[in-house]
């Protein structure tokens, strides 16, 4: 910033604002601006995201998958970002309410760390969501291709973001972080425009993920009420879409109206807050089916635990080595599946309406190769 070079030696920087004071505003270093709102919203969503992730890990405890590892890493990244954001919440304010002495090398350093954590969290969360779709719609060839395109596009976007952020934010040529903050404060550079381009692509990816399963779900043979319930579970992604769209709009407006240069700390604070909101929302999506299944199996059904104990000890006419499942379609009959029996296939109708279920989605401890309608699986697990 040019104003920094005009500061006389020996001036107390803590008495100076970090930017010009616009007409109608006054300097107030005690005003926290976004601190309370940012902490309130992000902490609440991070707690919800943590509950959903832990519920998914509980549901898949007996046979974890790589997608479970991804959501766990994403949760660690979200919690780390949340703790860091709360520790530096005093920086989430307008430039004229931010003492200049607070703009040390830690300011760009923490934003760089947040961008890296965001890239890992969002990429892993979105890929885990797409892997969930791949698990549910595994028989449909067109769906598999669409899902794999989404996975590779997501991976390339966020890996490139890590590279661009590292190149343009990390100091080069022996310069320190303290020197870089004075050079880049309030300036628009390539990384700013790259952020707009990335946000545009991410918004399209979020819309792609939110819309992808809807046509397939609404072609299933089930009641409209059940379709709406299942669609609502997957449509949690609308929160991520709203956050990414809002983030994109703010980035564009800050450049077009040239307001970023005068109030860059405030815009950076808003973008950081919305990024964490998107991280939490994106993390909830791949855990929503498992959360719904656990709520249905262990919470809404008060007798579920007692019935499980009875079935294990062989009471109520069911052996501990036998499991039974019933499907909602009238054309399907109860099928008894024995743990010691050979693999068997259950097939009716068009194969495009069928999926392959792993043991974790049914009982978690019986290895079976069962092909059942997508409608039956979703009705039983959501």
UniProtKB/TrEMBL annotation:
Keywords: Membrane, Transmembrane, Transmembrane helix. Belongs to the SAT4 family. It is found in: Membrane. This is Rhodopsin domain-containing protein. InterPro entries: Rhodopsin_dom_fungi, SAT4-like. Coiled coil: none annotated. Its main location: membrane. It comes from Xylaria arbuscula. It is a multi-pass membrane protein. It comes from the Eukaryota. GO terms for cellular component: membrane. Residues 62-295 form the Rhodopsin domain. The chain crosses the membrane at residues 37-57, 69-91, 111-137, 149-170, 190-211, 232-254, 266-291.
């Amino acid at each position: 910033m040019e104003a920094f070079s005009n500061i006389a030696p020996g001036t107390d920087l803590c008495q100076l604002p970090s930017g010009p004071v616009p007409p109608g505003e006054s300097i107030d270093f005690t005003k926290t601006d976004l601190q309370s709102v940012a902490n309130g919203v992000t902490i609440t969503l991070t707690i919800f995201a943590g509950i959903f992730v832990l519920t998914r890990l509980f549901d898949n405890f007996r046979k974890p998958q790589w997608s479970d590892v991804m959501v766990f890493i994403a949760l660690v990244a979200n919690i780390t970002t949340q703790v860091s954001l709360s520790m530096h919440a005093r920086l989430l304010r307008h430039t004229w309410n931010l003492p200049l002495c607070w703009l040390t090398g830690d300011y760009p350093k923490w934003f760089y760390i947040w961008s890296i954590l965001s890239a890992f969290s969002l990429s892993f969360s979105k890929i885990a969501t797409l892997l969930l779709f791949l698990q549910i719609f595994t028989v449909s060839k067109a769906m598999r291709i669409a899902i794999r395109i989404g996975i590779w596009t997501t991976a390339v976007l966020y890996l490139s973001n890590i590279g661009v952020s590292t190149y343009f934010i990390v100091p080069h040529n022996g310069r320190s972080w303290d020197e870089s903050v004075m050079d880049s404060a309030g300036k628009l550079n390539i990384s700013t425009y790259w952020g707009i381009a990335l946000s545009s692509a991410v918004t399209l990816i979020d819309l792609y993920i939110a819309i992808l399963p809807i046509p397939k779900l609404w072609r299933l043979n089930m009641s409209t009420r059940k379709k709406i319930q299942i669609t609502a579970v997957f449509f949690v992604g609308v929160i991520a879409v709203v956050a990414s769209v809002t983030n994109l709009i703010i980035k564009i407006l800050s450049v077009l109206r040239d307001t970023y240069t005068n109030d860059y700390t405030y815009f950076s604070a808003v973008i950081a807050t919305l990024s964490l909101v998107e991280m939490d929302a994106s993390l909830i999506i791949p855990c929503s089916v498992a959360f719904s299944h656990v709520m249905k199996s262990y919470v809404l059904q008060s007798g579920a635990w007692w019935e499980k104990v009875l079935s294990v000890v062989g009471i109520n006419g069911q052996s501990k080595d036998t499991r039974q499942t019933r499907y909602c379609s009238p054309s399907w009959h109860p099928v008894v599946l024995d743990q010691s029996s050979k693999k068997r296939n259950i097939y009716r109708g068009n194969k495009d309406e069928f999926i392959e279920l792993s043991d974790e989605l049914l009982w978690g401890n019986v290895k079976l190769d069962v092909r059942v309608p997508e409608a039956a699986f979703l009705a039983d697990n959501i």
